[in-house]
Each structure stands twice: as C-alpha cells, then as structure tokens.
Amino acid sequence: MDAAVLRTRSKTNRRIIRNAQASGYEAQTTLEPDASAFRLIGSNQEVDFARVPRSPPATQVRELARKIRHRIQTERLTDGSFFMTEAQLSAEYGSSRTVTREAVSRLQAIGILEGRKRKGLIVRRPDPLRLFQNSLPSLMTSPDDWRDLAQLRYALEVGAIELAIRAATDEQIERLGQIERELEQAVREDVASARTIELDVKFHSLILEMTGSRLISGMQQVLVQFFQAVPQAKPTAASAERICWEHRELLDAIRDRDVERARAMIRVQIRATLDAADQVTAFTPTTETGE
User: Residue 80, Cβ neighbours under 10 Å: how many?
Assistant: First the structure.
C-alpha cells in the first residue's frame, strides 16, 4: 500500500499522529521520536497538515464527560466541593488535553463544573430552570414550537392546581385574595396596562408557589414571562369583564378547596394561551430571557 509522508516540526508530531488516527489513518513514526517525519499508512496521496482535523473525536469527549458525571454522582460530591484540575483529569483518565478541555467545557455549560484560577474544578449543582430559560429563545423558531410551549404551560398549570390546593396555607389564600382585588381594579382602569399584566402574572405565580415545589413554580414563571412577549389580541370591555369573573371564580374554588372546580377554571384561563399560540405565524421575541 502506498504511503504518504508528512514532514513538520518534531514538537507537533504527537498531536498530528493523534488527529490522523482519529481520521482513520494508521500512523507510524518512521524516525526517532525527535525526528521531523512520520508515515500515514492507508493513503496514496500527500496529506496536507492543515487539513488534518484538529478537533477531538466527539465520542471521546462524550465518554469522558459521562465518566466525570458518574464519578461526581457516585462519590456524592456536593455543591462547592473540589474535584480536580484539568491536568489531573487528563492523567487519571488517559485523555488528551484537548479532549479533557472540551469535556470540561460541556459540563461547565450545563452548570455541573466551575473552573477556578489557581485552584481547579469545583462541583456545582446545575440549575435546570436557568438552562431552560436560556434555551427558550433558540427553541422558538416556528408556529409549531409556540404551540408546543403553550401546551407545556397548559399541562403544568392544570396539573399543578390539585397540589396547590392541598398544600396552600390560609395565609397564601389570603394573599391570593388581595392580589385578585388589586387585579380587578387594574383591569377596570385599563385591561392592557402593565399593572394588569403584572398582577395577573403574580396571581398565577402564587398559585404555583402554593405547591411547595421550586421547580414547578420556577418553570411557570419562565413560561409566563416568555409568553408576555407574544402579541395579544386587543382587549375589549367584554374581555375585561370575563377576566375579572374568571379570577374571582378560581379564587373562590381555591378557598373552598374544591379541586375539580378550580381545575375547570384554570383550564378556561390557560386556554387563552393556546389560542394566542395558534395566532403566532412568525414571531421572534425581542426580549432577553436568559442571564
């Protein structure tokens, strides 16, 4: 089989061989380790060094990232615990510095690791809400995406109402009543005002907060804030009256601890979100939802 010989400076030989092997060649050194040439078996033409891929194989990066996650979990390392340095990772797992750096970078992106200068890698507890919030703008590229997101919000709020009613304290229900009264006044003054929107979000956020789940309440807040950027139909006097009635009925159902009635009312309210999503044809939010 013909062989192509590639000449370059000796200090880069190892890296070139490693990258060539990742591309499917069988690389063999033809001279001493400090020589300036090596042989790539399996090619019948000259190989241009600049065209040899320099990115680490994705499978190696993915596998190393998996091993790091598994180790953190099995050793039950808590938020703030020291893990190790990138150099120690390379030595322990036998990975190249490039593969190690890329694997660490992926775990940093999802909040599992944090790099500290002159210290190394620190274990962090990832925040799924932050990841979801920062990903949303990139996910919304078509009307179908908006529809899917609206259905997620619908399922979240309708599904959580039972948990909210069973776990709500009297103090929380009293606060909900106060918000409802302020909301009704704001709606009658100007149904499309920023104050009305703020109170409506506050009303629904408190209901989800009643579940006692940070994840549920946080997810709902992300979705509600995102949907505020969607163009809405122009409100009318009739729609203003309907908004007041829906919130009063929902409040009464929660006060009575009536799960089925509350679920029916929350369905009516969140249904408007599905209808709004159906009207979206091509809309990209201009507001920042991430950090």
Answer: 10
